[in-house]
Design brief:
Helix content: 10-25%
Catalytic activity: 2 6,7-dimethyl-8-(1-D-ribityl)lumazine + H(+) = 5-amino-6-(D-ribitylamino)uracil + riboflavin
InterPro entries: ATP_synth_asu-like_sf (IPR023366), Lumazine-bd (IPR001783), Lumazine-bd_dom (IPR026017), Riboflavin_synthase-like_b-brl (IPR017938)
Order of helices and strands: EEEEEHEEEEEEHEH
GO molecular function, one term: riboflavin synthase activity
CATH architecture of the largest domain: Beta Barrel
Number of helices: 3
Number of strands: 12
Strand content: 35-45%
Organism: Mangrovivirga cuniculi
EC number: 2.5.1.9
Shape: globular
Distance between the termini: 31 Å
């Protein structure tokens, strides 16, 4: 489990394709602290570390993950958001994040809001799983959404987040990974079941 509070940025060093899978070699300031079998959120996607070597770690994405996320678009040199799993004794600063991407969205608009930046995202598949001022995860970042519609929503990004995540590298049309709030997913499932 994650909280959506990004620890650091990683850099994609190398990508290898093996059948339908892709292996990614990532360089980061936390790579040496990782170990094989550890779960780490990479742009909001929970991936298992398979190797650690001199400031770098390796993870593998299977076909289903590549289809549901933006990982298939990664190139060497890309910066990605990294977060290790939450410690049981840690503070819960964001919201409950599983690292299980629900779908992709693309950046519809970016506007300067006099000190912060407002992003509008268009969902590729409309969804009722967002509520006004609720939580959503964009590329692994826990954010509060507003102006919520079935196929779009907005978030406001403060300068600190722009500088310490890959939000500052996004352009109109770029794809991002979206994970809806798990509580909303359970409520939807239960209300459908008990109709």
């Amino acid at each position: 489990m994650f909280t959506g509070i990004i620890e650091t940025l990683g850099k994609v060093i190398e990508i290898q394709t093996e059948g339908l899978n892709k292996h990614f070699l990532i360089e980061s300031e936390i790579s040496n602290e990782l170990k094989a079998d550890e779960s780490v959120s990479h742009d909001g996607v929970c991936l298992t570390v398979t190797e650690v070597e001199k400031g770098k770690h390796k993870v593998t994405a299977v076909d289903e993950t590549l289809k549901k996320s933006n990982l298939g678009n990664w190139k060497p040199g890309d910066k990605i958001n990294l977060e290790r799993a939450m410690l049981a004794k840690g503070r819960f600063d964001g919201h409950v994040v599983q690292g299980h991407v629900d779908q992709k969205a693309f950046v519809k608009n970016i506007e300067n809001a006099e000190g912060s930046t407002v992003f509008t995202f268009h969902l590729i598949q409309p969804s009722p799983l967002m509520v006004e001022k609720g939580s959503v995860t964009v590329n692994g970042i826990s954010l509060t959404c507003f102006d919520v519609a079935l196929d779009s929503f907005k978030v406001t990004i403060i300068p600190y987040t722009m500088e310490h995540t890959n939000m500052g590298k996004l352009n109109k049309g770029d794809e991002v990974n979206i994970e809806f709030d798990i509580i909303g997913k359970y409520v939807k499932k239960l209300t459908e079941y008990y109709r």
